[in-house]
Amino acid sequence: MPEDPAFKRILLKLSGEALMGEQEFGLEANTLNRIAKEISTVHARGIEIGLVVGGGNIFRGLAGASQGIERGSADFMGMLATVINAIALQNMLENENIPTRVLSAIPMRNVCEPYIRRRAIRHLEKGRVVICAAGSGNPYFTTDTAAALRAAELDCDALLKATQVDGVYSADPKTDPNAQRFERLSYHDVISQDLKVMDTSAIALARENKIPILVFSLHNQGALDDVVHGRGEFTVIDDRDSEQGD
Q: What is the CATH number of the domain that holds 58?
């Protein structure tokens, strides 16, 4: 028998870039399918799963603002991109026979349900995967902050952030061979050292609501299942003392 998972309800944060695969833009079907299978494995354990997905594979608000689009408008465009990603993920999860609901912070009733906290919790209790789209519904806030907000609202036991590397490093390990990997960090460490794994408001929200953040790479098969069972490579961010890894 496999060991019991460490969490009953999680919030998984996926970047839009994670859905591109080897492409430079858009959605890659094989990558979507692989992520859906990873989620399916964890869902089969009886874990309640909420998702927040970014939109950077289609449009990024800050990039649009730098090209002359007014920042608020650019951010709303980015939020709409996350709805596209959420619907794609919903379809792939339903292909795995996982009941899934997309709830958008920007109401669009012909496409998905509006985000209502009590409704989202009810879906989770019924065993449905809930994909929270359109960020927080407000410009000037990142999807990382939206993920921390939804994790708090939905009473999640942990916020899992899937990245391109297997944890938090002191610098980009792809460009700095001396980058140090951390096994555990405090919320204060992340903010004071400006580690940029998530923006400051997201870290502050998690700290205020005592939600641990687990940072891991979704590139390795079975990585999500490993993390929810406390196995594999990942960095824990919480209010305990930090421990530097190898």
A: 3.40.1160.10
Per-residue pLDDT tens digits for 134-144: 999 999 999 99
Among residues 84, 101, 102, 112, the alpha carbon closest in space to that of 16 is found at: 84
Rounded Cα gap, residues 209 and 151, in angstroms:
9
Give SS3 for 147: helix
How many structural domains does the chain have?
1
**Which domain does 131 fall in, by range?**
9-157+198-209
Give the Cβ contact number of residue 180 at 10 Å: 13
User: 148 in a domain, yes or no?
Assistant: yes
Convert the pLDDT of each residue in 51-86 to its tens digit: 999 999 998 767 777 788 999 999 999 999 999 999
pTM, to two decimals: 0.92
Which contiguous run of DSSP H or E holds residue 96? none
Flag whether 54 is in a domain. yes
* 204-222 pLDDT per residue, tens: 999 999 999 999 998 888 9
Is 84 among the domain residues? yes
Residue-by-residue DSSP string for 26-90? S--HHHHHHHHHHHHHHHTTT-EEEEEE--TTT--HHHHHHTT--HHHHHHHHHHHHHHHHHHHH
The answer to whether residue 179 sits within a structural domain is no
In angstroms, the CA 55 to CA 70 distance is 18
What band does 246 get if pLDDT is binned at 50, 70 and 90?
very low
